[in-house]
From TrEMBL:
Stretches with biased composition (Polar residues): 44-55
Organism expressing this protein natively: Ligilactobacillus pabuli
Transmembrane segments: none
InterPro entries, A to Z: Phage_69_Orf23_MTP (IPR022345), Phgtail_TP901_1 (IPR011855)
Region Disordered, residue ranges: 33-55, 164-187
Domain of life: Bacteria
Compositional bias (Basic and acidic residues): 178-187
Pfam families per UniProt: Phage_tail_2 (PF06199)
Protein name (database record): Phage tail protein
Length: 187
Protein backbone atom coordinates (compact mmCIF):
# COMPACT_ATOMS: atom_id res chain seq x y z
CA UNK A 1 0.00 0.00 0.00
CA UNK A 2 1.32 3.44 -0.93
CA UNK A 3 1.40 5.84 2.01
CA UNK A 4 1.09 9.62 1.75
CA UNK A 5 3.82 11.34 3.78
CA UNK A 6 2.80 14.30 5.93
CA UNK A 7 4.76 17.54 6.01
CA UNK A 8 4.16 17.89 9.74
CA UNK A 9 6.02 14.61 10.28
CA UNK A 10 9.19 15.83 8.52
CA UNK A 11 11.55 17.51 11.00
CA UNK A 12 14.93 19.22 10.92
CA UNK A 13 17.64 18.56 13.50
CA UNK A 14 20.92 20.51 13.59
CA UNK A 15 24.19 21.06 15.49
CA UNK A 16 27.62 22.60 14.98
CA UNK A 17 29.78 20.14 13.05
CA UNK A 18 32.59 20.72 15.56
CA UNK A 19 30.26 19.38 18.32
CA UNK A 20 29.52 16.08 16.53
CA UNK A 21 31.59 14.01 18.99
CA UNK A 22 30.05 15.55 22.11
CA UNK A 23 26.47 16.66 21.31
CA UNK A 24 23.49 14.97 19.75
CA UNK A 25 21.59 16.84 17.07
CA UNK A 26 18.82 19.06 18.39
CA UNK A 27 15.32 19.42 17.01
CA UNK A 28 14.69 22.93 15.70
CA UNK A 29 11.60 23.76 17.84
CA UNK A 30 8.27 25.05 16.52
CA UNK A 31 8.91 24.36 12.83
CA UNK A 32 6.22 25.68 10.49
CA UNK A 33 7.84 24.68 7.20
CA UNK A 34 10.79 22.76 5.79
CA UNK A 35 12.01 22.80 2.19
CA UNK A 36 14.43 20.16 0.91
CA UNK A 37 15.17 20.81 -2.75
CA UNK A 38 17.97 18.79 -4.37
CA UNK A 39 18.42 19.54 -8.07
CA UNK A 40 20.81 18.93 -10.95
CA UNK A 41 21.18 21.23 -13.93
CA UNK A 42 21.36 19.61 -17.33
CA UNK A 43 22.33 20.93 -20.69
CA UNK A 44 21.73 19.53 -24.12
CA UNK A 45 23.95 19.83 -27.17
CA UNK A 46 22.43 19.22 -30.58
CA UNK A 47 24.46 16.89 -32.78
CA UNK A 48 23.81 15.41 -36.21
CA UNK A 49 22.94 12.11 -34.53
CA UNK A 50 20.63 13.64 -31.90
CA UNK A 51 20.93 15.50 -28.62
CA UNK A 52 23.69 14.71 -26.13
CA UNK A 53 22.91 15.63 -22.52
CA UNK A 54 25.36 16.63 -19.83
CA UNK A 55 24.52 17.13 -16.16
CA UNK A 56 26.13 19.07 -13.37
CA UNK A 57 26.62 17.91 -9.80
CA UNK A 58 23.70 17.93 -7.36
CA UNK A 59 22.96 21.20 -5.60
CA UNK A 60 20.69 21.19 -2.57
CA UNK A 61 18.61 24.01 -1.14
CA UNK A 62 17.57 23.52 2.48
CA UNK A 63 15.34 25.98 4.30
CA UNK A 64 13.49 25.81 7.63
CA UNK A 65 10.81 28.15 8.92
CA UNK A 66 9.98 28.25 12.62
CA UNK A 67 8.58 30.40 15.38
CA UNK A 68 11.49 32.30 16.87
CA UNK A 69 12.38 30.88 20.27
CA UNK A 70 15.05 30.80 22.97
CA UNK A 71 16.33 27.26 22.31
CA UNK A 72 20.05 26.60 22.11
CA UNK A 73 19.82 25.42 18.50
CA UNK A 74 17.95 28.58 17.41
CA UNK A 75 20.76 30.69 18.87
CA UNK A 76 23.43 28.45 17.31
CA UNK A 77 21.86 28.85 13.84
CA UNK A 78 21.97 32.64 14.00
CA UNK A 79 25.51 32.74 15.39
CA UNK A 80 26.64 30.23 12.73
CA UNK A 81 25.69 32.74 10.03
CA UNK A 82 27.98 35.41 11.51
CA UNK A 83 30.83 33.00 12.33
CA UNK A 84 30.71 30.92 9.13
CA UNK A 85 30.38 27.81 11.29
CA UNK A 86 30.11 24.42 9.59
CA UNK A 87 26.82 22.74 10.55
CA UNK A 88 25.37 19.22 10.52
CA UNK A 89 21.72 19.04 9.48
CA UNK A 90 19.43 16.02 9.35
CA UNK A 91 15.91 15.77 8.01
CA UNK A 92 13.94 12.97 9.67
CA UNK A 93 10.59 11.63 8.41
CA UNK A 94 8.80 10.30 11.47
CA UNK A 95 6.04 8.74 9.36
CA UNK A 96 8.36 6.42 7.42
CA UNK A 97 10.09 3.56 9.23
CA UNK A 98 11.94 0.44 8.19
CA UNK A 99 11.45 -3.01 9.76
CA UNK A 100 14.00 -2.13 12.49
CA UNK A 101 11.94 0.86 13.67
CA UNK A 102 14.41 3.37 12.22
CA UNK A 103 13.18 6.56 10.55
CA UNK A 104 14.05 7.70 7.03
CA UNK A 105 16.61 10.51 7.15
CA UNK A 106 18.76 12.79 5.01
CA UNK A 107 22.09 13.91 6.49
CA UNK A 108 23.88 17.03 5.22
CA UNK A 109 26.75 19.34 6.09
CA UNK A 110 26.95 23.01 5.20
CA UNK A 111 26.60 26.51 6.53
CA UNK A 112 23.83 28.97 7.30
CA UNK A 113 23.51 31.29 4.28
CA UNK A 114 20.56 33.41 5.47
CA UNK A 115 18.62 33.93 8.69
CA UNK A 116 15.66 36.23 8.22
CA UNK A 117 13.21 37.02 10.98
CA UNK A 118 9.89 38.85 10.91
CA UNK A 119 8.65 40.63 14.00
CA UNK A 120 5.13 41.86 13.30
CA UNK A 121 3.32 43.60 16.16
CA UNK A 122 0.30 41.30 16.01
CA UNK A 123 2.04 37.94 15.62
CA UNK A 124 4.81 35.72 16.96
CA UNK A 125 8.34 36.38 15.75
CA UNK A 126 9.23 33.99 12.93
CA UNK A 127 12.53 32.85 11.42
CA UNK A 128 13.41 31.63 7.95
CA UNK A 129 16.86 29.99 7.87
CA UNK A 130 18.52 28.88 4.62
CA UNK A 131 21.54 26.60 4.35
CA UNK A 132 24.28 26.25 1.75
CA UNK A 133 24.68 22.46 1.59
CA UNK A 134 28.14 21.09 0.81
CA UNK A 135 28.38 18.01 -1.39
CA UNK A 136 25.55 15.54 -1.81
CA UNK A 137 23.10 14.73 1.02
CA UNK A 138 23.31 11.16 2.31
CA UNK A 139 20.14 9.07 2.55
CA UNK A 140 19.66 6.53 5.33
CA UNK A 141 17.83 5.47 8.48
CA UNK A 142 18.17 6.75 12.05
CA UNK A 143 16.77 6.39 15.54
CA UNK A 144 16.11 8.96 18.24
CA UNK A 145 17.90 9.23 21.55
CA UNK A 146 15.51 9.40 24.53
CA UNK A 147 15.99 13.20 24.70
CA UNK A 148 15.27 13.60 20.99
CA UNK A 149 12.18 11.37 21.30
CA UNK A 150 10.96 13.56 24.17
CA UNK A 151 11.43 16.65 21.96
CA UNK A 152 9.44 15.05 19.13
CA UNK A 153 6.63 13.60 21.29
CA UNK A 154 4.92 14.86 24.36
CA UNK A 155 5.67 12.22 26.98
CA UNK A 156 3.43 11.81 30.02
CA UNK A 157 4.79 13.29 33.24
CA UNK A 158 3.29 13.12 36.73
CA UNK A 159 2.80 15.99 39.16
CA UNK A 160 6.10 15.59 41.03
CA UNK A 161 9.33 17.29 40.06
CA UNK A 162 11.07 15.77 37.04
CA UNK A 163 14.60 14.92 38.18
CA UNK A 164 17.47 12.68 37.11
CA UNK A 165 16.20 10.09 39.60
CA UNK A 166 12.52 10.43 38.57
CA UNK A 167 12.35 11.30 34.87
CA UNK A 168 8.56 10.71 34.80
CA UNK A 169 7.70 13.05 37.70
CA UNK A 170 5.96 10.27 39.62
CA UNK A 171 3.69 9.40 36.71
CA UNK A 172 3.10 6.34 34.55
CA UNK A 173 2.14 6.67 30.88
CA UNK A 174 -1.17 5.14 29.76
CA UNK A 175 -0.96 1.95 27.70
CA UNK A 176 -3.61 0.10 25.71
CA UNK A 177 -3.74 -2.49 28.53
CA UNK A 178 -5.13 0.28 30.77
CA UNK A 179 -8.29 0.65 28.64
CA UNK A 180 -11.33 -0.26 30.72
CA UNK A 181 -9.39 -0.57 34.01
CA UNK A 182 -10.94 0.76 37.20
CA UNK A 183 -9.45 0.15 40.65
CA UNK A 184 -12.92 0.16 42.26
CA UNK A 185 -14.26 -2.55 39.98
CA UNK A 186 -11.27 -4.84 40.46
CA UNK A 187 -10.73 -5.03 36.71
Amino acid sequence: MVKVLKGEKTLLFARRHADAATKEMQLVPYQTGLTFDPSRDSDSTATKSGSVNTTSSVETDLEVNFLNNTSEVADVLLQALFDGTQMDMEIVRTDRQNDKGEYEAWYMQGSVSEDSNDNDADDSSTRDVSFAVDGTPKHGWTTFTPDQQADVDYLFKGLAAVTDEDKDGGGTAWTDADNGKDADSGK
